[in-house]
Design a protein that fits this description.
Length: 254
Amino acid sequence: MLLPVVLPPLLFVHLLFLLLISISSSCYKSDNPSYYQHRVDTVSEKRSWNTETHSTASFASVTMSSDDKKKKNGYYYWHDHEKQRAAVGDVAALPTPLVVATDTAAAAAAAAADRVLATRKFSWDDGSKRVTVYLDTSYGGVGGEVVEELQDDSVAVDFTFCSVDVRYVGQRRDGARAAVRRQFKVPYLYGDIDVEQSTFVIKPNKTDGAKKEIVVKMVKREARPWSELHGKERTEEVKKDEGGSEEDEQELGK
């Protein structure tokens, strides 16, 4: 059997007050649409703030990513990376330049102008006071005709106390018409020579007048025979004064 619940007067009054407040609030919301608009605006502001925050973070992330790319593509980063690749052999070889075209005629002429040929056709004669060298400058063809002619103004001869150097140019008579540079050089003669008295001359060949030869005459310092033309390497000795006395020579010997 249910017994009636008897509430105290103070609790009853409190519950009645809460009920009235709830009813009045419901009536206010239904009668005032601006309340709901305020709620919508508040939610929109929160969403907008969240969107701006997300966009700012995304922009910062993109900026950082772009900076990283710039750093990796920078000059110093790339060259440091090249060193690392070179250490493991991961660097492509440099391209090899190829010759597209060359002027063969000009190249051949330049090579011929720079080339110096040795004169091998010579003879020599040993005299009591001088040594004579005969250089044959006229090179013949198959039929014996002269195909290389000496240019007289090109002959140059240099003497030192122990050497002789002869240089000249021969003009080809064949289709090439090229200038041939030749040289006859003995760096160390068998004996010493007198530079001031040594000379050379150009004259026709003894056996064939159509050919020319260079005759080099070298005066000996000492009247002794030469067994060969080439000698040993040496340096020039200091000569005594011709007017010195025997006592001076003895002092020099000491």
